User: What shape does this take?
Amino acid sequence: MNLELQTLTWAQAASVSTDALIVLVSQKSPKNTGVLATMLAQAEKTGDFSPAAGQCLMWWKPPGLQAQRLVFAGVGEGRAQDVRQAVTAAVTALKKTKTAKITICLQDELASHLAIAAQAVADASYIYTATKPSAKASLVTKLTLGVPDSSKSSGAFAVAKAQLAGVALAREWGNRPANHATPSDLANAAKALAKHPRISCQVLGLKEVTRLGMGSFASVAQASAEPLKFIVLEYKGAAASQAPVVLIGKGITFDTGGISLKPGPGMDEMKFDMCGAASVLGTFEALAQAKPQLNVVGLIPACENMPGGKALKPGDVVTSMSGQTIEILNTDAEGRLILCDALTYAKRFKPSAVIDIATLTGACVIALGHLRTGLYATDEDLARKLSEAGDHSLDLNWRMPLDDEYAEGLKSNFADVANVADRAAGSVTAAKFLHRFAKDFPWAHMDIAGTAWKSGAAKGATGRPVPSLLAYLLAEADHAKPAKSAKTSKPAKTQRA
Ligand code: BES
Ligand code: MN
Ligand code: ZN
Assistant: This one.
């Protein structure tokens, strides 16, 4: 989808020739004159439309307008979630029509929700095609964001563009079936990202991983016919002396549970067990576009969790890169086994913060459902920043506890630590396992088991938590200052993506 920013008042909107004009109407919209204002007043008078959030009214070939279709979409008080709800409703209605070009008119303060509106269009119009040749690609090819003064929105527009590209990449890799998204495929996707300036990529195989002592990671992969990959991405937007933020993404390309085999129904959804990895790839795509002044490292341990003659068995003890031994009581608790070695590896970057992103526990879905990501952090500042980034981008999270008492159940008679405790507080005990490997830097863990994908009729990856990761990183970099070699975006009436 092509994105464009334009200065657009209500009066100008009437003469915009587009397939569909979406006009967001808030309860506090100022009184306007002109054909749009007249139509709105009439529709409100007859009771056909009200500016309550989610209300929609569509016209076909509206008289006096150049647009083929017009949608009034109510945004109530004009909060970010209202804008998302309104745009989603409007685009869903338009999806049944022949709409390729959409123009959204955001008046006054609504312009501050540019990224939310653009993301809502992308989400509502997304169609998966990679392994479904019969599916027609999304008709929506162009989105114009109309704001009161485009020069004042050019920064927000750049962020919106970067976020959309990042979410799209994360969603695409999340959705691909495991036989089309192997560890090697993910490694190639990472290498493709390294074609962008400032991004480099290195991929380690079994030999290097073994030499590093990543016995925990390697043990998860040992029954799979697919070779494991340890992917190292680097984005260099600031001086080498500046400590990087390290992002670690769980890259289990398929989780059968291993010898502790998962039940059959719904097991296909374990192709989504690499959504943490996909979110790291997506965030790097977004960084390539937004070009912030900071350094970021992305680490992705990628492998399959399979049963078989060579598989890890309950009771086996493995040695992690940290030197700590781990008793495997359940081979289905494999995410923490690959992440712990990545956390140890992260130390070498002397990071300012380390954030791991993982579809780690079904227990997190029980705790928080599908709205908020579980957020754990050892550092108050990092927790606050990630929480604010989530709120800002509507990619919500919720802080969870890390009391040491929760680690009691991880004690083992045969190793330094067991990989599971009992069922109680399963998301927290998983985080406590990781905590043992994250003592040397400010650390946060995002359990995205409930938020990385949707089940049911709308089954598919969401691209979360790319929006909040990007918002956090841009805030860290103070995105007012683009990297040196980056083109400074000059205020222009129209910017093309
Ligand atoms: N990938 C799963 C977590 C998961 C399950 C995410 C369902 C989303 C939906 C993870 O590897 C796993 O299997 N976790 C176990 C841990 C248990 C064995 C302690 C779980 O949650 O059941
Ligand atoms: Mn598992
Ligand atoms: Zn898993």
The radius of gyration is 24 Å. The chain has two domains: 2-148, 175-479. The longest strand covers residues 295-305. The pocket of manganese (II) ion (ligand 2) is lined by residues 255, 257, 305, 332, 334 (CB under 6 Å).
